[in-house]
Amino acid sequence: MYLKHFIAQNYRNLEPFDVNFDPNVNIFIGQNAQGKTNLLEAIYFLALTRSHRTSNDKELIAFGQDYANISGHVYKIQNDLALRVLITKKGKKVWVNRIEQAKLSKYVGQLNAILFSPEDLDLIKGAPALRRRFMDQEFGQVDSEYLYFAGKYRQVLQQKNNYLKQLAQGTAHDTLFLEVLSDQLAGIAAEVIVRRFKFLSYLNEYARDAYAYISSSKEKLTINYRPSISEITKDDTVEQVYQKLLTRYQKNQQVEVLKRTTLSGPHRDDLEFQLDGKDAHLYGSQGQQRTIALSVKLAEIQLVHHLTAEYPLLLLDDVMSELDHDRQSALLNYIHGKTQTFITTTDLAGISWEIIKKPQVYRIKAGKIYLEEGKMNG
Ligand SMILES: Nc1ncnc2c1ncn2[C@@H]1O[C@H](COP(=O)(O)OP(=O)(O)OP(=O)(O)O)[C@@H](O)[C@H]1O
Ligand SMILES: [Mg+2]
Questions:
Q1: What SS3 class is residue 115?
Q2: Where are the alpha helices (DSSP H) in the chain?
Q3: The pLDDT of residue 374
């Protein structure tokens, strides 16, 4: 799939612009704070209706304005779509082919985008929350049920945690209601966990291949899901996971009241990356950790393709300069001819231009986007 026509109005510092992107490679060159990340964020938002940088949508509206509007025309193998998102201070609305969609889960997934920024290089050594967010964002865009259950889980979890606080403070006394909440939470959690296992089994395979492709060494990469309850295994059914979680919630009820929080479930689960069976978080070199992070993103591209028969957009925010020449060329060769790619950079130097065939080049200055005359290498 590719994004052709794109319009952003009142989006952060971006000046209104109207552009037809290149179906292959688009490069945006600009100094710091000119709007490069804002542009990629706007494209990402059009796809996922959420930002990778903030959960507060209001920040996206240009200073002094009441709304932001993003729209684009997406071309797919089977059809083409007009997408639109309107962000106001009260919330957001979405349209597909000018028809408003009541549910975001009906909208997300029409346009797929994988974003890779320098922070993603921390996927391996960063906090577990980073890896959970990774799963929620990436799996949510290929599976509307995952998106639904992950959102529902957050909601019921918060409800249960609030109730635990009330019980601890003595403003509530009914433990029967706590049991109802735990039961509901276990049911939703099981749906999330079983789907995570499923998508990770695909991702594992693709990431292993990508790692072998990028790295010059011979280690084998494996990704494991680490549930907060070790009895849960990858072959469990939804019903089995539900039972195991419920048993744990029942056993831990008093401790949870005491700690005023839910101690197990998808919000406490983690991912583990291994190289030849050794935990890469502990033993991997920085270079190996980066290569794993890159491999996982590339695996994501394959996962989207496997599930939708389309390649997602690839948004590379300032990562080229973070990668050495060999990894850059491995990356570019890997995606060549598959994904529509958007690359931002402050500096032309340090990028292996010879591998990028005929990119469309733009300059960004103070939120204005200029098309550079003529194509590079062409
Ligand atoms: N809601 C907003 N309204 C107007 N301007 C905003 C808003 N939010 C952020 N900005 C401005 O956008 C600019 C930053 O844009 P962006 O993060 O895209 O920079 P960048 O080109 O990616 O820079 P760098 O190379 O440092 O990453 C900042 O000057 C910031 O003040
Ligand atoms: Mg930036």
A1: strand
A2: 36-48, 104-107, 128-140, 144-169, 175-214, 238-251, 253-259, 280-283, 286-308, 325-335
A3: 52
64 alpha carbon, closest ligand? 1
Span 187-221, pLDDT tens digits: 999 999 999 999 999 999 999 999 999 887 789 99
For helices 175-214 and 325-335, give the axis angle rounded to 10 degrees: 100
Which amino acid type is present at position 47?
A
The reply to whether ligand 1 has any atom less than 6 angstroms from the CB of 37 is: yes
The letter for the amino acid at 137 is: Q
Q: Answer whether 367 contacts ligand 1 (Cβ < 6 A).
A: no
Mean pLDDT computed over every residue of the chain? 93
| For ligand 1, atom 12: residue with the closest CA | 13
Residue in 13, 34, 10 with CA at minimum distance from that of residue 347:
34
Rounded distance from Cα 44 to ligand 1 centre (Å): 15
The whole model's pTM is what? 0.91
Domains delineated in the chain: 1-112+311-378 (3.40.50.300), 124-309 (1.20.1050.90)
Residue 34 CB–ligand 1 contact under 6 Å: yes
